Amino acid sequence: MPLDPLPPLRDVIAQHGLSARKSLGQNFLLDLNLTAKIARSAGDLTQCDVLEIGPGPGGLTRGLLSEGARHVLAIEKDHRCLPALAEIAEAWPGRLTVIEGDALDVDPLAHLTPPIRIAANLPYNVGTELLVRWLTPPDWPPFWQSLTLMFQREVAERIVAAPGSKVYGRLALLAQWRCDARIVMSLPPQAFTPPPKVSSAVVQLTALPAPRFPADAKTLERVVAMAFNQRRKMLRAALKGLAPDIEEKLVAAGIAPTDRAETVDLERFCALARLIAK
Fold this sequence. Notes:
Distance between the termini: 54 Å
Helix content: 25-40%
CATH topology of the largest domain: Rossmann fold
Strand order of the largest sheet: 4-3-2-5-6-9-7
Number of strands: 9
Largest sheet: 7 strands, mixed
CATH architecture of the largest domain: 3-Layer(aba) Sandwich
CATH class of the largest domain: Alpha Beta
Order of helices and strands: HEHEHEHEEHEHHEEEHHHH
């Protein structure tokens, strides 16, 4: 792959006056060795378009392009970062498109050609909302093949959590119903400018061709949301509003009515969702 021809990120940030803004959830990762490692963890990108959210000064963008991404679409809300991203576009002609806007409002599909992967050091203030959107499209499989995303370590652990864990909940079930999910990299606060108060981790989610167990998506989301909104309650109490015979349905799904949500695995939640959907 071609070597990165651009200056170090610290120089880019100084040149363009890009101090990170807390209001935008910004923490810049300046080590280009680390951004290249994250890009490599997204797999072979040479035949893929890549969607990146919140590129900031472009550290991960440069990693994705250096690792051979066919095309990168970067959506950036902070107009201050656009000149730095324009320099990256000039260094890799025709392979980077930058859209100024809020990732929650922009439809990226008009600018992307399948196969598509998503890779991002997500802004902390919108990361979970974007993930839930990508995991709950109207149709499955989704427009993306894989997600390689950086989160606060605590959020990453919630995504890959197993039943019985204190952090097992809605996010784990949404992710693991339709994806293989694993943590591929951990980063200390000192890797960022400014250093956040918590550690970070990169999660990779690979889309399955079909959900792991059959269930109606909206019913499953409703069951899981109700179960974990009152996670200290027994499920017969937490889910009593779902059906008048909820105890019978719990038993039929292999769940004891006295169980709590954090002890029930994905397969049994899906079985319960199927019974309720009937």
